[in-house]
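User: ABC-2 type transport system permease protein. Structure?
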Amino acid sequence: MTATGTFLPRPGAAPLPRMIRAQAALETRMLLRNGEQLLLTVVIPSLVLVLFSTVDIVDTGSDGSTVDFLAPGVLALAVLSTAFTGQAIATGFERRYGVLKRLAVSPLPRWGLMAAKTCAVLVTEVMQIVLLTAIALALGWSPHGDPLSVALLLILGTAAFSGLGLLMAGTLKAEATLAAANLVFLLLLVAGGVIVSLDKFPGAVRSALELLPISALSGGLRDVLQDGAGMPWRDLGILAVWAVLGLGAAARFFRWE
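Assistant: Predicted structure:
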C-alpha cells in the first residue's frame, strides 16, 4: 500500500487484449496436452494422406498424381478436425464440468472466449499444416498457386468451422456433441471432396454438397494448389457466409451451462 486507500497491484480486470491472449495460451496448452485431440487433429489426417497416397484404394478422379489431389483435401480435413470436431467436443465437456460457468463470472466476455479458442485453433493448425506439408512433399507433392489465396481459404475455413463447433458445443449436451461432432466428421470426410472427388456424385447431390464449408475449402485449396488457379472467389464467398452465420449464431445462442 502506497497511500491511504491505494493498493498495488491495483484491483480490477486486465485489458481485454491481455485477457484474450492469456486465455488463448491456456486453450493452446490444453489442446496440445490432450492425447485424444492430437489423435484426431494430427494422426488421422496424416494417416489418411499417407494411406490413400500410397495405396490404390479410392479413385480420386484426378488425372495427375494422387498426392497432388489428396494433399489439399487433407489440409481441409485438418482444419475440420481441429476447428470443428475437436473444439466442439472439448468445449462441450468444459461446459458440462462447469468450467465455462466459472469463466462466465470472469471479466472475459463471451465473444472474448470464442476469440481465444479460435486463436488456439489457429496455432494448432499452423503446426498441422507444417507437418502435413512435409509429409506430402516427401510423398512427391508439387503444390502451385498463390500463398495468399491459400491463407485466406484456411482462415475463413477456420472461422466457419470454429463458429459451427462452438454453436454445437454451446447448445447441445456434451454426450450429444461428442456423437454429433464425430458423425459429422465422418460424413464430411466422405462427402466433402476430401478423398473422393465431388464429380463422383449425381448432379443434384453434387450441387448441394458444393455449398458445404468443407467442400468449398477442399475445392478451393485444390483449385489453387493443384491447378494453380487464381483467387477462388466463389469458395471464399461460401466460407465467408458460413463464418458469419456460424459465429453469429454461436455468439447469440451459446450457453455457459
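Residues 163 and 245 are 8 Å apart (CA to CA). DSSP finds ten helices and no strands in the chain.
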